[in-house]
Amino acid sequence: FERRGSVHGVLRYLIDHGIALPDRTRSGPARGAIVWRPPHRGAILNLLTSPAYAGAYVFGRRTGRPDVGSRRRRAGQPSRRPADWRVLLPDRWPAYISWSTYEENQTRLDANRSKHKGVPRGGPSLLAGILFCGRCGHRMVTCYRNNGRDLRYDCTRDQINHGAPHCQSLSGGTLDALVTDLILEVLRPSAIEVSLQLAEDVELERARRHRQWALRLEQACYEVERAERQYDAVEPENRLVARTLEQRWEAALAAEAGLREERVRLLAREPPRLTPADREAIRALAEDIPGLWRAATTTAAERKQIARLLLERVEVTVAGVSENAEVVCHWVGGRQSRHALVRSVRRTVQLARHAELLACIRSLHAQGLRPPAIARALQAEGWRSAHGKGFTAGSVRALLTRMGVVSTSPKRPSAVVVRCAGEFTATEIAARLNLPEGTVYNWLYKGRLPARRVEAAWHTLWLVRLEDVKALLRQRAGAARLPPRPAASR
Fold this sequence. Notes:
The protein is built from 16 helices and 16 strands.
Protein backbone atom coordinates (compact mmCIF):
# COMPACT_ATOMS: atom_id res chain seq x y z
CA PHE A 1 0.00 0.00 0.00
CA GLU A 2 2.90 2.36 0.65
CA ARG A 3 4.23 1.83 -2.87
CA ARG A 4 0.92 1.63 -4.75
CA GLY A 5 -0.85 4.40 -2.87
CA SER A 6 -4.43 3.09 -3.14
CA VAL A 7 -6.58 0.08 -2.33
CA HIS A 8 -7.15 -0.54 -6.03
CA GLY A 9 -3.40 -0.53 -6.65
CA VAL A 10 -2.88 -3.17 -3.95
CA LEU A 11 -5.74 -5.22 -5.41
CA ARG A 12 -4.23 -5.14 -8.89
CA TYR A 13 -0.80 -6.14 -7.52
CA LEU A 14 -2.19 -9.13 -5.62
CA ILE A 15 -4.18 -10.31 -8.65
CA ASP A 16 -1.28 -9.90 -11.07
CA HIS A 17 1.06 -11.89 -8.81
CA GLY A 18 -1.44 -14.56 -7.78
CA ILE A 19 -1.39 -13.72 -4.05
CA ALA A 20 -4.44 -14.95 -2.13
CA LEU A 21 -5.80 -13.61 1.16
CA PRO A 22 -6.80 -15.67 4.21
CA ASP A 23 -10.39 -15.96 5.30
CA ARG A 24 -12.45 -18.12 7.66
CA THR A 25 -15.41 -20.26 6.70
CA ARG A 26 -18.66 -19.05 8.21
CA SER A 27 -20.79 -22.18 7.86
CA GLY A 28 -20.57 -25.92 7.49
CA PRO A 29 -18.78 -28.52 9.57
CA ALA A 30 -15.41 -26.76 9.06
CA ARG A 31 -16.71 -23.44 10.35
CA GLY A 32 -13.84 -21.18 11.42
CA ALA A 33 -11.22 -22.96 9.33
CA ILE A 34 -8.76 -20.83 7.42
CA VAL A 35 -9.24 -20.79 3.63
CA TRP A 36 -7.37 -18.85 0.96
CA ARG A 37 -9.52 -16.81 -1.38
CA PRO A 38 -8.84 -14.47 -4.30
CA PRO A 39 -8.26 -10.89 -3.06
CA HIS A 40 -11.08 -8.37 -3.08
CA ARG A 41 -11.40 -4.72 -2.15
CA GLY A 42 -13.31 -5.20 1.09
CA ALA A 43 -10.75 -7.60 2.56
CA ILE A 44 -7.86 -5.27 1.71
CA LEU A 45 -9.67 -2.30 3.23
CA ASN A 46 -10.34 -4.28 6.41
CA LEU A 47 -6.65 -5.15 6.67
CA LEU A 48 -5.61 -1.53 6.26
CA THR A 49 -8.14 -0.06 8.69
CA SER A 50 -7.97 -2.66 11.47
CA PRO A 51 -5.90 -1.33 14.41
CA ALA A 52 -5.22 -4.89 15.57
CA TYR A 53 -2.46 -5.22 12.98
CA ALA A 54 -0.75 -2.26 14.68
CA GLY A 55 -0.88 -4.09 18.05
CA ALA A 56 -3.74 -2.06 19.54
CA TYR A 57 -6.85 -3.32 21.33
CA VAL A 58 -9.88 -1.24 20.34
CA PHE A 59 -13.49 -1.35 21.48
CA GLY A 60 -16.41 0.77 20.36
CA ARG A 61 -15.35 1.60 16.79
CA ARG A 62 -18.93 1.27 15.57
CA THR A 63 -21.61 3.64 16.81
CA GLY A 64 -25.05 2.09 17.10
CA ARG A 65 -28.02 3.90 15.65
CA PRO A 66 -31.71 2.91 15.81
CA ASP A 67 -33.44 1.52 12.76
CA VAL A 68 -36.20 3.58 11.21
CA GLY A 69 -39.55 2.69 12.78
CA SER A 70 -38.11 0.43 15.49
CA ARG A 71 -36.20 0.56 18.74
CA ARG A 72 -33.57 -1.94 17.60
CA ARG A 73 -30.09 -0.51 17.15
CA ARG A 74 -27.75 -1.62 14.41
CA ALA A 75 -24.03 -1.06 14.08
CA GLY A 76 -22.84 1.62 11.68
CA GLN A 77 -19.61 1.93 9.77
CA PRO A 78 -16.49 1.71 11.96
CA SER A 79 -14.89 5.07 12.63
CA ARG A 80 -11.25 5.60 11.66
CA ARG A 81 -10.66 8.38 14.17
CA PRO A 82 -9.22 7.25 17.51
CA ALA A 83 -11.08 10.08 19.23
CA ASP A 84 -14.38 8.31 18.44
CA TRP A 85 -13.35 4.95 19.93
CA ARG A 86 -14.52 4.09 23.42
CA VAL A 87 -11.42 2.05 24.33
CA LEU A 88 -7.91 2.21 22.85
CA LEU A 89 -5.10 0.17 24.42
CA PRO A 90 -1.90 0.26 22.35
CA ASP A 91 0.78 -2.44 22.43
CA ARG A 92 -1.62 -5.24 23.40
CA TRP A 93 -1.03 -7.60 20.43
CA PRO A 94 1.97 -8.66 18.34
CA ALA A 95 2.19 -5.82 15.84
CA TYR A 96 2.80 -6.29 12.13
CA ILE A 97 3.21 -2.56 11.59
CA SER A 98 3.94 0.35 13.88
CA TRP A 99 1.27 2.70 15.09
CA SER A 100 2.80 5.58 13.10
CA THR A 101 2.55 3.48 9.92
CA TYR A 102 -1.08 2.74 10.71
CA GLU A 103 -1.82 6.44 11.10
CA GLU A 104 -0.05 7.20 7.81
CA ASN A 105 -2.20 4.57 6.10
CA GLN A 106 -5.38 6.17 7.44
CA THR A 107 -4.21 9.58 6.26
CA ARG A 108 -3.56 8.20 2.78
CA LEU A 109 -6.97 6.50 2.68
CA ASP A 110 -8.67 9.78 3.64
CA ALA A 111 -6.67 11.64 0.99
CA ASN A 112 -7.85 9.19 -1.68
CA ARG A 113 -11.44 10.26 -1.29
CA SER A 114 -13.04 12.40 -3.99
CA LYS A 115 -12.88 15.58 -1.94
CA HIS A 116 -9.12 15.23 -1.60
CA LYS A 117 -6.38 15.21 -4.19
CA GLY A 118 -6.25 11.39 -4.42
CA VAL A 119 -3.55 9.36 -6.14
CA PRO A 120 -2.02 10.27 -9.51
CA ARG A 121 -4.22 9.31 -12.44
CA GLY A 122 -3.34 8.62 -16.05
CA GLY A 123 -4.52 11.87 -17.60
CA PRO A 124 -2.02 14.35 -19.07
CA SER A 125 -2.70 16.95 -16.36
CA LEU A 126 0.35 17.42 -14.13
CA LEU A 127 -1.31 19.39 -11.31
CA ALA A 128 -4.61 17.54 -10.91
CA GLY A 129 -5.49 17.50 -7.22
CA ILE A 130 -2.79 19.91 -6.04
CA LEU A 131 -3.81 23.09 -7.94
CA PHE A 132 -5.80 25.65 -5.94
CA CYS A 133 -7.45 28.92 -6.86
CA GLY A 134 -5.61 31.96 -5.55
CA ARG A 135 -8.86 33.96 -5.32
CA CYS A 136 -11.24 31.72 -3.34
CA GLY A 137 -8.87 28.99 -2.14
CA HIS A 138 -10.88 26.08 -3.59
CA ARG A 139 -9.29 23.23 -5.50
CA MET A 140 -9.50 23.78 -9.25
CA VAL A 141 -11.17 21.21 -11.47
CA THR A 142 -9.28 19.50 -14.30
CA CYS A 143 -11.21 19.51 -17.60
CA TYR A 144 -10.31 17.54 -20.72
CA ARG A 145 -11.84 18.70 -23.99
CA ASN A 146 -11.39 17.94 -27.67
CA ASN A 147 -11.02 14.21 -27.01
CA GLY A 148 -8.45 14.75 -24.27
CA ARG A 149 -6.15 16.99 -26.33
CA ASP A 150 -7.26 20.25 -24.69
CA LEU A 151 -6.45 20.60 -20.98
CA ARG A 152 -8.00 23.34 -18.88
CA TYR A 153 -8.11 24.17 -15.17
CA ASP A 154 -11.37 25.68 -13.96
CA CYS A 155 -12.61 27.00 -10.60
CA THR A 156 -16.36 26.41 -10.41
CA ARG A 157 -16.97 25.42 -6.76
CA ASP A 158 -18.86 28.58 -5.72
CA GLN A 159 -20.59 28.78 -9.07
CA ILE A 160 -22.01 25.25 -8.71
CA ASN A 161 -22.76 25.28 -4.97
CA HIS A 162 -23.85 28.86 -4.42
CA GLY A 163 -24.69 30.23 -7.89
CA ALA A 164 -21.86 32.76 -7.70
CA PRO A 165 -20.23 34.19 -10.85
CA HIS A 166 -17.56 32.16 -12.55
CA CYS A 167 -14.29 32.54 -10.66
CA GLN A 168 -11.40 31.92 -13.08
CA SER A 169 -10.00 29.42 -15.55
CA LEU A 170 -6.91 29.02 -17.68
CA SER A 171 -5.36 26.68 -20.20
CA GLY A 172 -3.38 23.90 -18.57
CA GLY A 173 -0.64 23.50 -21.15
CA THR A 174 1.21 26.72 -20.32
CA LEU A 175 0.91 26.22 -16.56
CA ASP A 176 2.09 22.59 -16.73
CA ALA A 177 5.06 23.65 -18.85
CA LEU A 178 6.06 26.28 -16.26
CA VAL A 179 5.81 23.81 -13.35
CA THR A 180 7.70 21.18 -15.35
CA ASP A 181 10.62 23.59 -15.86
CA LEU A 182 10.63 24.36 -12.13
CA ILE A 183 10.65 20.66 -11.20
CA LEU A 184 13.46 19.86 -13.63
CA GLU A 185 15.42 22.77 -12.20
CA VAL A 186 15.03 21.30 -8.73
CA LEU A 187 16.05 17.84 -9.94
CA ARG A 188 19.03 19.04 -11.95
CA PRO A 189 21.68 17.75 -9.44
CA SER A 190 20.52 14.15 -9.92
CA ALA A 191 21.92 11.30 -7.85
CA ILE A 192 22.79 7.92 -9.37
CA GLU A 193 22.14 6.23 -6.02
CA VAL A 194 18.42 6.82 -6.49
CA SER A 195 18.29 4.50 -9.50
CA LEU A 196 20.54 1.93 -7.84
CA GLN A 197 18.32 1.96 -4.76
CA LEU A 198 15.33 1.39 -7.04
CA ALA A 199 17.04 -1.66 -8.52
CA GLU A 200 17.78 -2.97 -5.03
CA ASP A 201 14.14 -2.46 -4.06
CA VAL A 202 13.07 -4.52 -7.06
CA GLU A 203 15.37 -7.36 -6.00
CA LEU A 204 14.14 -7.15 -2.41
CA GLU A 205 10.57 -7.30 -3.60
CA ARG A 206 11.42 -10.32 -5.74
CA ALA A 207 13.05 -12.03 -2.73
CA ARG A 208 10.02 -11.34 -0.54
CA ARG A 209 7.71 -12.73 -3.19
CA HIS A 210 9.84 -15.88 -3.56
CA ARG A 211 9.85 -16.33 0.21
CA GLN A 212 6.08 -16.04 0.29
CA TRP A 213 5.73 -18.66 -2.42
CA ALA A 214 8.17 -20.92 -0.57
CA LEU A 215 6.05 -20.64 2.57
CA ARG A 216 2.89 -21.41 0.59
CA LEU A 217 4.51 -24.47 -0.96
CA GLU A 218 5.79 -25.56 2.45
CA GLN A 219 2.28 -25.26 3.86
CA ALA A 220 0.86 -27.26 0.94
CA CYS A 221 3.46 -30.01 1.44
CA TYR A 222 2.64 -30.11 5.14
CA GLU A 223 -1.07 -30.52 4.34
CA VAL A 224 -0.24 -33.42 1.99
CA GLU A 225 1.96 -35.13 4.56
CA ARG A 226 -0.61 -34.61 7.30
CA ALA A 227 -3.37 -36.08 5.14
CA GLU A 228 -1.13 -39.03 4.29
CA ARG A 229 -0.34 -39.70 7.97
CA GLN A 230 -4.01 -39.57 8.86
CA TYR A 231 -4.86 -41.99 6.08
CA ASP A 232 -2.10 -44.40 7.16
CA ALA A 233 -3.18 -44.25 10.78
CA VAL A 234 -6.81 -45.27 10.16
CA GLU A 235 -7.86 -48.88 10.74
CA PRO A 236 -8.85 -50.84 7.63
CA GLU A 237 -12.18 -51.74 9.19
CA ASN A 238 -13.21 -48.06 9.27
CA ARG A 239 -13.97 -47.89 5.54
CA LEU A 240 -16.06 -44.73 5.71
CA VAL A 241 -13.37 -42.83 7.60
CA ALA A 242 -10.68 -44.17 5.28
CA ARG A 243 -12.65 -43.07 2.21
CA THR A 244 -13.05 -39.56 3.64
CA LEU A 245 -9.35 -39.31 4.52
CA GLU A 246 -8.41 -40.55 1.08
CA GLN A 247 -10.48 -37.78 -0.52
CA ARG A 248 -8.76 -35.18 1.69
CA TRP A 249 -5.37 -36.60 0.68
CA GLU A 250 -6.22 -36.39 -3.01
CA ALA A 251 -7.52 -32.84 -2.60
CA ALA A 252 -4.29 -31.83 -0.84
CA LEU A 253 -2.21 -33.40 -3.63
CA ALA A 254 -4.25 -31.56 -6.28
CA ALA A 255 -3.89 -28.26 -4.42
CA GLU A 256 -0.12 -28.75 -4.16
CA ALA A 257 0.18 -29.58 -7.87
CA GLY A 258 -1.91 -26.57 -8.85
CA LEU A 259 0.16 -24.31 -6.63
CA ARG A 260 3.41 -25.52 -8.20
CA GLU A 261 2.05 -24.99 -11.74
CA GLU A 262 0.90 -21.49 -10.83
CA ARG A 263 4.33 -20.68 -9.40
CA VAL A 264 6.00 -21.86 -12.62
CA ARG A 265 3.75 -19.58 -14.67
CA LEU A 266 4.51 -16.59 -12.43
CA LEU A 267 8.26 -17.24 -12.60
CA ALA A 268 8.04 -17.28 -16.40
CA ARG A 269 6.46 -13.80 -16.36
CA GLU A 270 8.97 -12.25 -13.98
CA PRO A 271 11.31 -9.62 -15.41
CA PRO A 272 14.98 -10.63 -15.71
CA ARG A 273 17.51 -9.58 -13.12
CA LEU A 274 19.63 -6.51 -13.67
CA THR A 275 23.04 -7.19 -15.17
CA PRO A 276 26.10 -4.95 -14.74
CA ALA A 277 25.40 -3.56 -18.22
CA ASP A 278 21.85 -2.71 -17.13
CA ARG A 279 23.19 -0.91 -14.07
CA GLU A 280 25.52 1.15 -16.25
CA ALA A 281 22.57 2.05 -18.44
CA ILE A 282 20.64 3.14 -15.34
CA ARG A 283 23.54 5.34 -14.29
CA ALA A 284 23.59 6.94 -17.73
CA LEU A 285 19.86 7.57 -17.65
CA ALA A 286 19.93 8.92 -14.11
CA GLU A 287 22.29 11.67 -15.25
CA ASP A 288 19.70 12.92 -17.74
CA ILE A 289 16.61 13.74 -15.69
CA PRO A 290 15.02 15.93 -18.42
CA GLY A 291 15.38 13.07 -20.90
CA LEU A 292 13.72 10.67 -18.47
CA TRP A 293 10.93 13.13 -17.81
CA ARG A 294 10.14 13.59 -21.51
CA ALA A 295 10.71 9.94 -22.48
CA ALA A 296 7.84 8.14 -24.18
CA THR A 297 8.07 5.35 -21.60
CA THR A 298 7.46 7.76 -18.69
CA THR A 299 3.74 7.82 -17.96
CA ALA A 300 1.70 10.81 -16.87
CA ALA A 301 0.99 9.14 -13.51
CA GLU A 302 4.74 8.85 -12.83
CA ARG A 303 5.26 12.54 -13.62
CA LYS A 304 2.42 13.43 -11.24
CA GLN A 305 3.96 11.27 -8.54
CA ILE A 306 7.27 13.12 -8.89
CA ALA A 307 5.45 16.47 -8.76
CA ARG A 308 3.61 15.46 -5.58
CA LEU A 309 6.85 14.38 -3.94
CA LEU A 310 8.23 17.90 -4.45
CA LEU A 311 5.13 20.12 -4.33
CA GLU A 312 2.53 20.32 -1.61
CA ARG A 313 0.22 22.65 -3.55
CA VAL A 314 0.21 25.20 -6.35
CA GLU A 315 -1.87 28.38 -6.32
CA VAL A 316 -2.66 30.40 -9.42
CA THR A 317 -4.30 33.84 -9.61
CA VAL A 318 -5.35 35.40 -12.92
CA ALA A 319 -5.23 39.20 -13.10
CA GLY A 320 -8.81 40.01 -14.09
CA VAL A 321 -9.51 38.53 -17.52
CA SER A 322 -6.08 39.41 -18.89
CA GLU A 323 -3.29 37.10 -19.96
CA ASN A 324 -1.21 37.77 -16.84
CA ALA A 325 -1.29 35.34 -13.92
CA GLU A 326 0.75 34.69 -10.78
CA VAL A 327 1.76 31.17 -9.73
CA VAL A 328 2.75 30.38 -6.13
CA CYS A 329 4.47 27.01 -5.57
CA HIS A 330 4.45 25.56 -2.05
CA TRP A 331 7.36 23.13 -1.98
CA VAL A 332 7.83 20.30 0.47
CA GLY A 333 9.71 21.68 3.46
CA GLY A 334 7.89 25.02 3.64
CA ARG A 335 9.64 26.96 0.88
CA GLN A 336 7.52 29.12 -1.44
CA SER A 337 8.32 30.55 -4.85
CA ARG A 338 6.38 33.06 -6.95
CA HIS A 339 6.40 33.09 -10.74
CA ALA A 340 4.73 35.13 -13.47
CA LEU A 341 2.71 33.30 -16.12
CA VAL A 342 1.42 34.57 -19.45
CA ARG A 343 -1.60 32.50 -20.43
CA SER A 344 -3.52 32.36 -23.68
CA VAL A 345 -6.86 34.18 -23.94
CA ARG A 346 -9.67 34.00 -26.46
CA ARG A 347 -9.91 37.61 -27.61
CA THR A 348 -7.42 40.37 -28.26
CA VAL A 349 -9.39 42.80 -26.10
CA GLN A 350 -8.47 40.67 -23.04
CA LEU A 351 -4.79 41.57 -23.40
CA ALA A 352 -3.56 43.90 -20.68
CA ARG A 353 -1.82 46.14 -23.27
CA HIS A 354 -4.65 45.98 -25.78
CA ALA A 355 -4.95 49.75 -26.25
CA GLU A 356 -1.20 50.12 -26.66
CA LEU A 357 -1.15 47.31 -29.22
CA LEU A 358 -3.87 48.92 -31.33
CA ALA A 359 -2.09 52.27 -31.20
CA CYS A 360 1.13 50.63 -32.39
CA ILE A 361 -0.63 48.92 -35.30
CA ARG A 362 -2.38 52.15 -36.27
CA SER A 363 0.93 54.01 -36.20
CA LEU A 364 2.71 51.43 -38.36
CA HIS A 365 -0.15 51.52 -40.89
CA ALA A 366 0.00 55.31 -40.99
CA GLN A 367 3.67 54.99 -41.95
CA GLY A 368 2.60 53.14 -45.11
CA LEU A 369 3.45 49.59 -44.02
CA ARG A 370 1.41 46.69 -45.35
CA PRO A 371 0.05 43.93 -43.03
CA PRO A 372 3.04 41.54 -43.64
CA ALA A 373 5.52 44.29 -42.73
CA ILE A 374 3.43 45.27 -39.69
CA ALA A 375 3.42 41.63 -38.52
CA ARG A 376 7.21 41.43 -38.81
CA ALA A 377 7.60 44.67 -36.86
CA LEU A 378 5.30 43.44 -34.08
CA GLN A 379 7.24 40.18 -33.80
CA ALA A 380 10.52 42.09 -33.61
CA GLU A 381 9.15 44.16 -30.70
CA GLY A 382 7.97 41.02 -28.83
CA TRP A 383 4.23 41.46 -29.20
CA ARG A 384 2.10 38.30 -28.88
CA SER A 385 -1.46 37.62 -29.96
CA ALA A 386 -4.28 36.47 -27.67
CA HIS A 387 -3.24 32.83 -28.15
CA GLY A 388 0.34 33.53 -27.17
CA LYS A 389 1.70 33.28 -30.72
CA GLY A 390 3.31 35.80 -33.01
CA PHE A 391 1.24 38.02 -35.27
CA THR A 392 0.72 37.07 -38.91
CA ALA A 393 -0.35 39.11 -41.91
CA GLY A 394 -3.87 37.68 -41.63
CA SER A 395 -4.26 38.53 -37.94
CA VAL A 396 -2.96 42.08 -38.55
CA ARG A 397 -5.37 42.52 -41.46
CA ALA A 398 -8.25 41.32 -39.27
CA LEU A 399 -7.34 43.83 -36.56
CA LEU A 400 -7.09 46.67 -39.09
CA THR A 401 -10.50 45.72 -40.44
CA ARG A 402 -12.02 45.65 -36.93
CA MET A 403 -10.47 49.02 -36.18
CA GLY A 404 -12.02 50.47 -39.36
CA VAL A 405 -8.63 51.49 -40.76
CA VAL A 406 -9.02 49.41 -43.92
CA SER A 407 -12.18 48.36 -45.71
CA THR A 408 -13.36 44.83 -46.08
CA SER A 409 -12.61 42.66 -49.08
CA PRO A 410 -14.04 43.70 -52.46
CA LYS A 411 -17.77 43.24 -52.73
CA ARG A 412 -18.68 39.72 -53.70
CA PRO A 413 -20.93 39.18 -56.71
CA SER A 414 -24.55 39.03 -55.72
CA ALA A 415 -26.00 35.57 -55.11
CA VAL A 416 -29.57 36.85 -55.55
CA VAL A 417 -31.14 35.68 -58.84
CA VAL A 418 -34.28 37.21 -60.33
CA ARG A 419 -36.60 34.36 -61.29
CA CYS A 420 -39.58 34.29 -63.57
CA ALA A 421 -42.91 32.90 -62.46
CA GLY A 422 -42.84 29.13 -62.01
CA GLU A 423 -39.03 28.75 -62.22
CA PHE A 424 -37.14 26.56 -59.78
CA THR A 425 -33.64 25.12 -59.44
CA ALA A 426 -32.88 21.47 -60.16
CA THR A 427 -32.64 20.71 -56.45
CA GLU A 428 -36.00 22.32 -55.75
CA ILE A 429 -37.61 20.44 -58.66
CA ALA A 430 -36.28 17.12 -57.33
CA ALA A 431 -37.61 17.87 -53.84
CA ARG A 432 -41.05 18.98 -55.05
CA LEU A 433 -41.68 16.03 -57.40
CA ASN A 434 -39.82 13.39 -55.33
CA LEU A 435 -37.35 12.72 -58.14
CA PRO A 436 -33.66 11.85 -57.97
CA GLU A 437 -31.63 15.00 -58.43
CA GLY A 438 -29.33 13.18 -60.83
CA THR A 439 -32.28 12.39 -63.10
CA VAL A 440 -33.18 16.06 -63.40
CA TYR A 441 -29.59 16.98 -64.25
CA ASN A 442 -29.49 14.12 -66.78
CA TRP A 443 -32.49 15.56 -68.60
CA LEU A 444 -30.88 19.01 -68.56
CA TYR A 445 -27.58 17.78 -69.98
CA LYS A 446 -29.37 15.79 -72.76
CA GLY A 447 -31.53 18.77 -73.69
CA ARG A 448 -34.86 17.14 -72.84
CA LEU A 449 -35.82 20.00 -70.55
CA PRO A 450 -35.81 23.66 -71.57
CA ALA A 451 -33.88 25.65 -68.94
CA ARG A 452 -32.27 29.00 -68.35
CA ARG A 453 -28.70 29.36 -67.01
CA VAL A 454 -27.96 32.33 -64.73
CA GLU A 455 -24.93 33.50 -62.73
CA ALA A 456 -25.24 33.47 -58.93
CA ALA A 457 -22.08 34.70 -57.17
CA TRP A 458 -19.33 32.49 -58.66
CA HIS A 459 -21.69 29.65 -59.54
CA THR A 460 -24.07 28.84 -62.39
CA LEU A 461 -27.65 27.79 -61.70
CA TRP A 462 -30.18 25.99 -63.88
CA LEU A 463 -33.69 27.49 -63.68
CA VAL A 464 -36.45 25.19 -64.94
CA ARG A 465 -40.17 25.80 -65.23
CA LEU A 466 -42.21 23.36 -63.18
CA GLU A 467 -44.81 22.97 -65.94
CA ASP A 468 -42.13 21.86 -68.42
CA VAL A 469 -41.00 19.11 -66.04
CA LYS A 470 -44.58 17.91 -65.48
CA ALA A 471 -45.15 17.87 -69.25
CA LEU A 472 -42.04 15.73 -69.72
CA LEU A 473 -43.23 13.33 -67.03
CA ARG A 474 -46.67 13.02 -68.67
CA GLN A 475 -45.03 12.40 -72.02
CA ARG A 476 -42.82 9.64 -70.60
CA ALA A 477 -45.78 8.09 -68.75
CA GLY A 478 -47.85 8.03 -71.95
CA ALA A 479 -45.03 6.40 -73.89
CA ALA A 480 -44.79 3.72 -71.22
CA ARG A 481 -48.56 2.86 -71.64
CA LEU A 482 -48.39 2.39 -75.44
CA PRO A 483 -48.96 -1.24 -76.68
CA PRO A 484 -45.86 -3.03 -77.96
CA ARG A 485 -45.20 -2.88 -81.66
CA PRO A 486 -46.20 -5.97 -83.73
CA ALA A 487 -43.38 -8.19 -84.90
CA ALA A 488 -42.33 -7.64 -88.55
CA SER A 489 -43.57 -10.39 -90.99
CA ARG A 490 -40.94 -12.47 -92.63
